[in-house]
Every structure is written in C-alpha cells, then in structure tokens.
Fold Ferredoxin.
Amino acid sequence: TYVIAQPCVDVKDKACIDECPVDCIYEGRRSLYIHPDECVDCGACEPVCPVEAIFYEDDVPGEWRDYYKANAEFFDDLGSPGGAGPLGLIVRDHPFVAGRPGTEA
Ligand code: F3S
Ligand code: F3S
C-alpha cells in the first residue's frame, strides 16, 4: 500500500484524490488516509502531491514510519467502504495524527 505522512497534516491539497482509480484516499479532519486494503499500488497519487506526503510503504522515511499504522488503523471502525467519495469528510483523525504539530509552511 501507499501511505500518507506528515506533510499532508493541515495541508490537505487533495490533488491525490483525483488521481486514484479506486477512490481509496479518505479525508479525515487534519489529513488524508489511504485505505491499505483498497489501494491497488498503482502509484498515481505519489507524484502529484505538491508537498511529497505520499510514499510506498517500504519507502516511508524513518521519522514518519508511524504513519503506516495510522493510515491502516484509521479504518478500524470503518471497515472497507469501497470508495471515499460517498463518505466525504470524516470529522476525526487517527490519535497519532491528531497529536501531531501542523506542517510548517
Ligand atoms: Fe495530502 Fe498531498 Fe493528497 S497534501 S491531500 S497527500 S495531494
Ligand atoms: Fe490510489 Fe495511490 Fe493507491 S492512486 S490505488 S492510493 S497508490
């Protein structure tokens, strides 16, 4: 799967959403989250993020490794909705993301 990390927090550019062929990038309060079971690893989202927040799971920089878990656990009580569009904004964050400082401009 691909993972959204720190640079997205409080930025939420959302260019990634338009690129995803399976609509598996979900919007939380401060960040977006990629559904690990729905992502088909097409990689289309990664180059369009203007702040380079998206990484293939094996390439997440060391200091941001916890975002792998945060992206996955965000869906613990959502299951696999099969598409982000109908859900729209999900007004919460994974606790790890909720506690992060905002991204410096
Ligand atoms: Fe976030 Fe980048 Fe997408 S800032 S919303 S991961 S385009
Ligand atoms: Fe979608 Fe990016 Fe995965 S475009 S399928 S979230 S690699």
